[in-house]
Amino acid sequence: MRIRRKSNGCMNCGHTLDSIYNYCPSCGQENNDNNISFGTLIKDFFTNYFAFDSKFARSVLPFFFKPGFLTNKYNEGKRVSYVHPVRLYFIVSLFFFFIFSLASKKVIEEQISNAKEIKNAIQLNSITGLDEETRKKISDALDSNTIDDINDDLENGNIEELVDLLDEKSKEKLLKVLDSTEVKQLNLNLKELTLNSLDTLNNQVDKWVNDPTIASLTKEKKTENNWNRIERLKENDDLSDAMIYDSLDLEDTSNFERYFWNQYIRTRRSDERLLTNYFLKNLPLMMLLLLPIFAFVLKVLYLRRKVLYIKHLIHALHLHSLAYIIYGTSILLMMYLFKDDDSTGWVSFITFVLVSTYSYVSFLKVYGQGWFKTLVKFNLLGFMYINLLGLSVVIEVFISGHDLE
């Protein structure tokens, strides 16, 4: 029961109140004195909104070890004795999305760090006459595609050949990071540099757009070609999003497809940290919006059972809550205990089996159909939900990319 600290008078209008009043009969304000210490406020918050009492204690064991029990009890009308499914969902989702957020950010940071290490590791070791510091400056200043091209084209492995393989824009970048001694060592002549790099890139874009060989490609091949082109150009700082978009083959495409490609370019070129933060911010809402859809699919699959939609929704809340706890725990284990690939693979497999088994048994208990019919419907639901989840993630990533604009 919610804790109220009642007063003898309404703090809003001053009306005299009796202890039986939860709300002021004059203005309607709640009769609750919040002039209390911070510690008491925190204690009341957990008591009021998380209700860690006998109700919670009675719910724990059935929730974990009796699939479908809480759903059946709630649908039978026995609701006071157990934690409300909505409250349970929000408590567990706080745990899961916090852990998922930590893990996702950790993975992104590791990927960025590894990519940086790989780039820094390209020290152009085959070039003679360059000291270690200069090599590192070159590899840090140039993008990875440029360095890869240089390493692929090097034959003699001398400084003169390196300079010949640098385009004008790359030389400009090096001039910003190298000191005068290093510039002299590389023999970079300022007079040889021009400012027509952007014109060159625009000409290349026009060449891509007007390439007659592209017109003969099938739609699937054009799509694949567009994917590859974006991946190849996304790290080129000299190209704007619009220039990359204009280089794609979008002839005979719908407005939605054009919007898709435009958003995809923005998403792929967005800062991974920012994109991850926006994605994680929107993810809880996305999963919450999927719950009623999940319940609707249950309603369709069990249409002949004449079960009210709200009962399917209660079942969906319990299933997602259990999945959040198990998956959240497994993520913790993989983050701190089982870090190698073999161990994480086994943890992921065991987690999937546990969630699937629990959900299947819950279906048997809640809907009361035979094991074969239940298995068919369970797999059909799983197939539909995984595809719906994948589509939702794609949409959510695009929305997150749009938020970065």
From TrEMBL:
Annotated TM spans: 86-103, 283-302, 314-338, 344-366, 378-399
InterPro entries from the UniProt entry: DUF3667 (IPR022134)
Keywords assigned by UniProt, alphabetized: Membrane, Transmembrane, Transmembrane helix
Residues of the signal peptide: none
Domain of life: Bacteria
Protein name: DUF3667 domain-containing protein
